[in-house]
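Question thread 4412

I'm putting together a teaching handout and wanted feedback from people who do this every day. The idea is simple: show students a protein as raw sequence, then show them the C-alpha cells that encode its fold, then repeat with a second protein so they can compare. Below is the first pair exactly as I plan to print it.
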Amino acid sequence: MAISTYTELKTEVAEWSHRSNLTAKMDTFCILAESVINKDLRTLDMEKRLAVTFDDAFYDIPADYMEMRAIQIEDDGARVPIKAYSPQQLDAIYSRAQGTAAGYAIHGGQIELRPAPSVTATVDGEISYYARVPTLTGTATNDILTKFPMIYLSAMMLQVNLFLQDDEEMTKWADVYNSQIKQANKSAQGGRYVLPQVQVA
C-alpha cells in the first residue's frame, strides 16, 4: 500500500470500504477527517515560526493558526519568552502597566500583548504555533499524508463508516487511528530532544 497523494488515498478508501459509489462524498470525508486530525495530532511538521513586528496591543493570529506554542520578543538583543494568560488575568495584571510587553492572551481571533506596543514603540518578536494541516481537497499532498498515511486512511475510514452507520468497522478503525496518533505524537515529543554524544577517550 503506497499512499502519497490524495488520489491514491481516495483509491485506498474505496478499496478498504469495498464501495465504489462514494466518490462524490470523498471531499466531505476528507474535510471531516482533517478536522479530527487537527484536533488530535501534534507533530513537528505542524509547527510554524513567524517573525513579526508588534506595533499595537492587538495582532491578528495567522490564518492557519490552531494552537499557540510560544511568543518571544526581542529585548536588548535577547529573545525573551512572554507568559500566556487568560484575557481576564491579562487585564488584571497589566491594565496600567508600562514598558516592554511581558504577557499575552488570545481572544477574538487576535493576540493581545500587555504592556501594549505602539507605532512609536514597536516590538520585534516571533510567534511559534501549531498550524492546521493543509487540506488535501486543495492540494495533491501534504507532509502529514507523506509521513503518516495510516493516520489519514484511518481517519477517513472512520468518516466513511460513520456515514454507512457501520459500528463494527468504526470501532476497528478507531483503534487503528488512536494507535497511529499516539505513536506520531510520541515520536514528535522524542524528536524535540537530542541526546548528548558519548565520547570515548
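The second pair follows. I'd like the answer to focus on this one:
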Amino acid sequence: MNLEQISSSPVVRAPRSCRLQQAAELMRAHHVGSLVVTDDAPNEERIVGFVTDRDLVLKAVAEGIGPADAMLADIMVEGLLTVARDADVGVAVETMRENGVRRLGVVDEDGVVIGFVSFDDVLAGVAEEIAGLAAILESEREREVEEGAMDADATEEVSAEVTFTG
C-alpha cells in the first residue's frame, strides 16, 4: 500500500502571521487537522513549517496563550518532513518513528506538497490490510467446510452402494 492511497488532502496553507483563531477557523472550515505554514508575502509560496490542531491545544491553549494574541509563527513546527506519494507505508512509519512525529507531508514528483499522512491514516490503512488478511482466512475456512460437506455427501453415496456379506 502506498501513501497516496491513505493520505489526506486538500493541503490548506496559512501565512506565519496568521492568528491562531484564524488558523483554527481554517481547520474547521476545511475539515483538516493541520495547516502548511508559509512565509508572509511576497514569499507566500515558501513553506516554513506546519501546525496541527494538537499544536494549537498543547502549545497555545494549555499555556494560556489567547488565540487572538498569538500567530502561527509562535507555535508552528519549523520545516516539514515529507515522503513521496508513491512510497510504501513502511517508509512513513519509519520516518515518523525516527523523528518522533505523527504527521508527514506527502509530495508529488515535483516536490509539491499534495497532502498529509498521519499516524491515524497509517493505522487505518494497516487495519484495512489486516481485515483483508482475516477475510482470506475466513474464506478459506468456509471453502474447507463446504468441501468437507461435499466429501461427506460423496462418502454417504459410496457407503450406500457397498453391501457387506458375511
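Top answer:
Good format. For the second protein you could add a caption like this: Residues 119-161 form the longest helix (43 residues). The first strand starts at residue 13 and ends at 15.
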